[in-house]
Amino acid sequence: MNLNHFLKADREKAERLFISTRDLISELPAAIEEHDFEGCVEISATIISNCKDLQRMEHPEQVVQLREIVSNLASRGINVSTVRRVYQ
């Protein structure tokens, strides 16, 4: 999965959702084989919910815009290093 399409603040959550969804998808065939159709519905609903969350979190155009802005500022000689706040 390419996490570069997610804002930095969302990448950890996106990765967890992706792994959770992948694991749920792998559980689905066993539930079907066992005729656990109620379980299949629950698994499928969770997969759908996770995918909708991932879709909402994905912002490739914003990430590209931020990179373009930073590159433009850096080419003008402006320091674009990350500033971190120190909390006391």
Automatic annotation (TrEMBL):
Domain of life: Bacteria
Protein name: YqaH family protein
Classification via Pfam families: YqaH
InterPro entries documented for this protein: YqaH-like (IPR020278)
